[in-house]
Specification:
Chains A, B: Keywords: Calcium, Hydrolase, Magnesium, Metal-binding, Phenylalanine catabolism, Tyrosine catabolism. Two copies of one chain form a homodimer. Chain A is an alpha+beta fold. Helix content of chain A is 20%, strand content 25%. Chain A has two domains: 119 residues, Roll (SH3 type barrels); 214 residues, Fumarylacetoacetate hydrolase, domain 2 (Alpha-Beta Complex), CATH 3.90.850. In chain A, α1 crosses α2 and α2 packs across α4. At the A-B interface, β7, β10 and α8 of A face β7, β10 and α8 of B.
Amino acid sequence: MRGTDETHDPARVSWVDSANGHADFPIQNLPLGVFSRPGEAPRGGMAIGERILDLASAARSGLFDGEAQTAAEAASGPALNPLLALAPAPRCALRRAASALLSDTARRSEVEVHLVEASDAIMHLPAAIGDYTDFYAGVHHAMNVGRLFRPADPLLPNYKHVPIGYHGRASTVVPSGRTVRRPSGQTRAPDASAPTFGPTQRLDLELELGVWIAQGNRLGEPLSIAEAGSRIAGLTLLNDWSARDLQAWEYQPLGPFLAKSFLTTVSPWIVTAEALEPFRIAQPARPEGDPAPLPYLWDEADQAHGAFALELETLIQTEAMRKAGVAPHRLGVGPATNLYWTMAQLVTHHASNGCGLNPGDLLGSGTISTPDDTGMGSLLELTRGGKQPVVLPNGESRTFLEDGDALHLRGRAVREGFVSIGFGECVGVIEPETA
Amino acid sequence: MRGTDETHDPARVSWVDSANGHADFPIQNLPLGVFSRPGEAPRGGMAIGERILDLASAARSGLFDGEAQTAAEAASGPALNPLLALAPAPRCALRRAASALLSDTARRSEVEVHLVEASDAIMHLPAAIGDYTDFYAGVHHAMNVGRLFRPADPLLPNYKHVPIGYHGRASTVVPSGRTVRRPSGQTRAPDASAPTFGPTQRLDLELELGVWIAQGNRLGEPLSIAEAGSRIAGLTLLNDWSARDLQAWEYQPLGPFLAKSFLTTVSPWIVTAEALEPFRIAQPARPEGDPAPLPYLWDEADQAHGAFALELETLIQTEAMRKAGVAPHRLGVGPATNLYWTMAQLVTHHASNGCGLNPGDLLGSGTISTPDDTGMGSLLELTRGGKQPVVLPNGESRTFLEDGDALHLRGRAVREGFVSIGFGECVGVIEPETA
């Protein structure tokens, strides 16, 4: 699929009133997730305004036909992996059918019985994550961080040739809202000869996009760059919480380990590749002098349409701010075009050694930062390694995160002539370490 | 459980004749795995000599009672995760019951109907791996490799304080016997300014032990070192196939990625903690001058019993050797006591940040090498980075692995007064890259 259809029509409105003008979930979005109400079994749903279309109950009642019904049935279980394992066509059919039903007032009574209030629902992970991989494609983040440690030579020689990434921990990925317990670990003070063990003193966020994988590839069989785009089911916001002091001590020579694997928070809705179609834009041209990607990473169509017009934002609200009714404070905002590689390039590279990607696998983009202070994706960058505190509206300041801090990520797809869509909540509140 | 019982009695023999004197699977072993015959559903089994006790059919027929029956039922599905999720007691009960039944000639006719020929069976992974983590606890390997790249300072400052590890790729772990397709990837020749993409020219093995996790810990709640030992369901052999040229180019700054995630081979049988009980030995004292482990990693009982008396061996048989009937050639043999940390220390460290470990998770120990040439766990070490070829019995030589080479790992637990037990096959044959 390439291009837009009636589901993207900006004139289309829903009989679900809360959807019209909704910041995240107007009828043009229709993201996929897994929800339950207390005492109920988790199952697939589609967000529409402040409500959720229960795909399991809709499938049972025969609300859909043909391929749309196939997709709804695949979304009826506690994880969307069976839906992600389908070819794109049934997911597109489900989207078109749901968009028609939710905009056709004549069908309202028949459909409304399958809607639940989002405020009554708990959100779960949308899929059982087989493997989680985190990339490092935010070039300004790599620069900003590199500059702190290697001022003369911030980017390593491989950066502009290889999409750098590492394997993450699937078991510690959680949906928005789960508390972030401050991790303990080994750290070594700059002037100490030996490490000590205790709670991290440099707890940080990392603003990332996540990619949910649809159909993958067979073990041993790479995916071409031309195929890779179709393996992206959709995107999510991802906060790769990081303990910088643990990271600095442990990461040589095998990379980040426990500094990252205590928790990763994702927004619980898969904003589908279909919903994002109007927001596809050209990958920005590389700066003069940068190497061209090797042929296995190069595809004209991907360069022309492989980036996304997304605005990504980080906000903090301390406990004192919450108690005083002070709204979350924006730490930064910036565009997703600050990624050096397209999502399709990340997928192709990942499978280039024959590594098997599977439906429900999750990729992180790497931290997305602006080159300047307006949209840093981590406090490490914004505070220059903890040296320049951020002052908050109520007079508090932060170098790294403190207990009680709530950290929000927001994301919004924006393009003239189209209705903006968003990702929903991606929040975590810091709790003290285990006693 | 600590100590030995009647299941370890060296005088105990089985009415399964092939078990008595079997190098790997005498009645004192009884490892757990998942098998199927062509057209059948995979289910749990227990190896006994050249046969497999079908735990699913035994459970259905009511061969076991009480906790042993609970365990056999949990082993009846296509993966042993439900069995691993149980407390140790039912697994111990199953072991004791199976040992009694397989040694009691009076029960033979009743039990024999549940035995299948191992030669008729395909072995699968014993569990669905939630997450796979690879450590770097083989201190001589770290030294040998460090010496190649940093002769003056082979071990990094953190090595003797932190159990170094990284997250691996669960989707690419396969049971013994699956072919190893030569991966392609980016490499940069030493004198080149830019990388190229193509099949690895430096394909290597890594001899490791794997740990299968039983009950884990809840996300956010660390495991004490005193608890950690009981979370080890058993051990396996693990070959962490590695593409050294990809690794050298990609690994900075986030660690190994595609150089490792094309395939990891394990022996398909879980040699249980219970079976290994007689082979527990003291962790060797650290060399004079080495730091003591931090308190969260220190437990007297673990130091006294946390290591294993295992001999680990690597063998190669090239295609030409196979055609000429030349037996596999030993590349090296050495003890598992060349690990700097106990398995319990690895488990405790892994959970120390609150990372959730789950039943069926797999940990690799890191490559286990001797300080000298007798038991190098990789060709990188044995050939000094590819500079000193190994000469094989038929006159061929190898620096790294070539297409058609079969690489075998073997492992054997040996202690005077006890019957030796082994791990079974852990083999992979190298195939050319995807055309």
